[in-house]
Amino acid sequence: MIVGRVSRPAAGVHARSSRTWRSGADVDVCPTWFVRSRLNFDIVSRMSRTLLVRLSAVVIALGCAWIAYTQAPPQQGKQQAKQPNNTISKVADDLYAIIGDGGNSTVYVTNEGVILVDDKFEYDGQDIIDKVKSVTNQPIKYVLNTHLHGDHTGSNERFLPIAEIIAHKNARDNMVKNKAPGVMRVVFTDETDIFLGGKEVRMKYYGRGHTNGDAVVYFPALRILASGDIGANNGPNVDYANGGSMKEWGATLDGVLKLDFDTVIPGHGPVSKRQYLSDYRDVATKLPATVISMMRDGKSKDDIAKVFMTNGGLWVNPNVVNKLDQIMAELKN
Amino acid sequence: MSRTLIVRLSATFLALGCAWVAYTQAPQGKQQAKQASNKLNKITDDLYEIEGDGGNVAVYITNEGVIVVDDKFEYDFNDIMAKIKSVTAQPVKYVLNTHHHGDHTGSNEHFLPTAEIISTANARKNMIDGKQPGAPRVVFTDETDVFLGGKQVQMRYFGRGHTNGDAMVYFPALRLLHTGDLVAGNSPLIDYGGGGSLKEWAATLDAAMKLDFDTMIPGHGPVGKKADMLTYRNNVEKLRTEVTGMIRQNKSRDEIAKVVEDKYGWAPTGLQFQRGFDGMLAELKR
After folding, report:
1. Is the ipTM of this complex over 0.90?
2. pTM of the entire structure?
3. What is the pLDDT of residues A23-34, one digit of tens each?
4. For residue A160, which residues of chain B lie inside 8 Å, CB to CB?
């Protein structure tokens, strides 16, 4: 189990020492103290020799574990150690949602390949492939990113050599700016459509919200929409560093709601009905207006924070309190 | 003996019958027999033009693959590939179609299994409506960019003109623009069946000229400068103004046709007349 957690050079050290104590032949790679202790084995009993070998092995293993632990960069190490935890569920005959880690993924199956919306974290890549394989033999041909964030683009690097990844132009610009891995080759500004196996997928940009590069993905034949995080159930998480806007969020959803759909797969949260996104829009429209009038009335930041936490029941997101200064700064203008 | 003869005669008739059916039913036969005749021109260190049959092709070389603009006729495919191989070992990864016509999309079928082909949504729709082979899988409405090997290519839709789905392809690092048939020859071919518009053409070119470029590869004809695009644009506008004036003066169809032939060089039996003349009169009457 330790081997799976260690960084690459440390794993090499561990493997080599394992071989050494098992075979007893690779003396040349043994530490000198180990060789010396072997020479004394002739005068000790067979039992204690075995014990010594075992003890040495344990010491080496612990040493390796310690090296592995201290050498792995803390952030990366933790993420790589994470086990994917996702479930795939059928939304239509040829469309599935993979829900669990990170953002929701959507899987659209055609007889010429699979179109995937969002690819979670890096450590979810293999699990996404396995989940897709559990419902079709078709390969993943297109990956559509709803926006730049790593919980939606984390497996891009894995898909880049085998699939066309497409995102909004601003999403790519943000990834380049943030030095994110798995930057796509193809971008669009207003609309792009994918036609595969006689089926159509439409990717549209309606304006700023969560970021300045949020795309929604529409499946016209199924009347299903993958909304990305402008419809995520964890509230108005405005990423100002990447061009997000509380002020424009509602108008962006007005545009989205012109599409003709019944079902929404949000960026986070359970598969929902159209009403969910329409309610979301109403709150996203009302909220900035409320905050603006509260600021005019000289209400405290705490009072304003309460509105975010309670309004419509949609915005139960503690993160918003951290963003409140930025939101208020935007709405002041 | 006579039985053998009957069998042989029947076989001969059958074969002749099949040949006749094949001959009369194969409209593509003539085209497939055609020999490709093209020339490769170096424009910059990493961009080449293939001129000759059909529309002009642009070849942009990167260290992760080649981006091709337009792919002529079906019978030009092998020649296009041979020309590209003569200057790079990189595979063709993207084919960008400026519009749906067969002299710009003819080799799509051959590229489709190994490259991503991209056009405007309208160009693809025109291909589907016309039952053309090799329709692209990826389309856009306003802008799409391809980033390959550290290089960028921008594909833009600026509005109607030659058809309702003409894209231009811009190479920012080279200050170069492939115009498709929005600039081609001396006078416009307005494909009304494909959604073209003389009325909107000049505005479409005005929008395109806001891009920052020096060199222009037209859809057909020699490589030019940005100033040549302005000349073409003014000629488009002149045609529109002159024909509109003649319609207002109640000039006859023949009178207008004569002016278009003499002053704008439309060949009496050419495509400009076939696809554009009646549509132009109808559009400018409105």
Report:
1. no
2. 0.82
3. 333 333 333 333
4. none
